[in-house]
Design goal:
Distance between the termini: 52 Å
Number of domains: 3
Number of helices: 7
Order of helices and strands: HEEEEEEHEEEEHEEHEEHEEEHH
């Protein structure tokens, strides 16, 4: 049998096809060979007046030169939620355009391993994900799929700095000097990769559903009527239908950028999608997807199934449910690969690294903020002290004269309340620093 597999593997693939990975042992799979013409001739962006590098300007809505004032609009088409979607077929992938369509370089961080596309001609840079300057800059490959759509930056860097300053100044338990930090000057505009999915979900559920039934009976021992509630179980089935539209999956690895923080920037307004043009990336950084289409779709299906499960439980008219089972079928699955705008700042404070992000379309901000723990411990001490003091006063009174019941009881209640409030405050502070 092994000889047969060996001879088969030596056969030449059909013309125009290449061998791809097969999930079934002993079965060889061929797919259409990617079209080498799908990589457009890369463009470079220099000012036609003075020759300086030009970049995308949020205020102008086009590319602009900061030296001589040259401005040119981007010839992009706003498509919104009507942007084309693609079926899950090998032909779709093989015919997809690849590369960025402009001369760019790759910044590879030796510290965290992140790879980022940066404008051509940049000589030095700092990794926006871990704040390391141990980076290498190489030429950009043209292998990854090209995004078909993106949401342009709408918030300027100046607006972002003001938003960040106000956000950093909020919260009494953060270091006082945080709002005066200069790292806000290093906010970096980055287009991050996302996959969006549309699908139709039909979920069938089956479960034992319990209904409360109240009966009255006469208790001969107490000579009174009493009510009794029991649960009557019966098997039931049902079906729910969900139309999933623009389900987002982050295309970057969580080791490089915090998915917890990034999810707090949602939602992005998908009616702002425009057809991809390389000019939107001029002077800005962009990240190619690290999560493949297949991996993203598997992640999306798991999350969509959980959503369907919750919808099935909501479809059941009572909270008494047991032996629940569900089957979910997906139909009309389509996808899009898009870029979404985020301002990112990774900063060091007292030898620790923190991330802060701003939605480049809406201005929504989220991130990590260091905690002045001495303030937390002082506050916890203040919340526990009243109960502890009253307890210490009431206990001797209770032992000596028996008159300290009220004082001791109040002290115990205040101490328990202080513990609860202390736990809430501690968890909130820990969450502020969590990645």
């Amino acid at each position: 049998m092994d000889d047969v597999h060996s001879r088969i593997s030596q056969l030449a693939p059909p013309e125009g096809y290449i061998q791809v990975d097969s999930k079934v042992h002993g079965v060889i799979v061929y797919a259409p060979q990617p079209d080498s013409n799908n990589t457009d001739q890369a463009k470079s962006y220099a000012c036609p007046n003075c020759g300086a590098n030009i970049a995308y300007d949020v205020a102008e809505g086009g590319i602009a030169c900061e030296y001589c004032g040259y401005v040119a609009p981007v010839k992009g088409t706003q498509v919104g939620k009507g942007a084309d979607e693609f079926e899950f077929t090998l032909e779709t992938l093989s015919q997809s355009t690849r590369g960025w369509g402009t001369q760019r370089q790759v910044l590879q961080c030796a510290s965290c391993g992140a790879q980022l596309s940066i404008p051509h001609g940049v000589l030095t840079a700092t990794c926006p994900f871990c704040a390391s300057n141990q980076v290498n800059v190489t030429s950009s490959p043209e292998e990854s799929l090209r995004p078909r759509f993106l949401v342009p930056f709408k918030i300027s860097k100046q607006q972002t700095r003001q938003i960040s300053k106000e956000w950093l100044g909020k919260g009494w338990y953060h270091p006082n000097e945080l709002a005066a930090s200069t790292f806000m000057q290093r906010l970096t505009g980055v287009y991050l990769p996302f996959w969006t999915f549309d699908t139709q979900v039909n979920a069938d559920w089956r479960a034992e559903v319990g209904y409360e039934k109240t009966t009255r009976h006469y208790n001969s021992s107490t000579k009174s009527w009493e009510t009794r509630t029991k649960i009557v179980w019966r098997w039931e089935t049902g079906q729910i239908h969900q139309n999933i539209d623009d389900f987002l999956v982050i295309g970057s690895h969580p080791n490089h950028i915090s998915h917890r923080i990034l999810n707090q920037l949602l939602p992005f307004q998908m009616n702002g999608l425009v057809a991809y043009q390389p000019e939107y990336l001029a002077g800005l950084q962009a990240m190619a997807y690290e999560t493949t289409l297949t991996q993203a779709w598997e992640s999306a299906k798991r999350a969509i199934r959980e959503g369907a499960k919750k919808a099935c439980y909501q479809d059941i008219p009572t909270s008494h449910v047991r032996n629940f089972s569900m089957t979910a079928d997906f139909a009309d699955e389509t996808w899009r690969y898009i870029l979404l705008p985020v301002y990112l700042a990774t900063y060091r404070f007292e030898e620790k690294v923190y991330q802060m992000m701003v939605n480049g379309q809406t201005g929504k901000i989220a991130g990590q903020k260091p905690v002045a723990w001495w303030k937390i411990w002082l506050a916890i001490g203040g919340m526990l002290s009243p109960g502890l003091i009253l307890g210490l006063i009431g206990l001797p009174m209770l032992l000596l004269a028996g008159s300290g019941v009220i004082v001791a009881g109040l002290g115990i209640l205040l101490f328990i309340l202080g513990i609860v409030l202390s736990i809430i405050l501690y968890n909130k502070a820990r969450q502020s620093e969590a990645k």
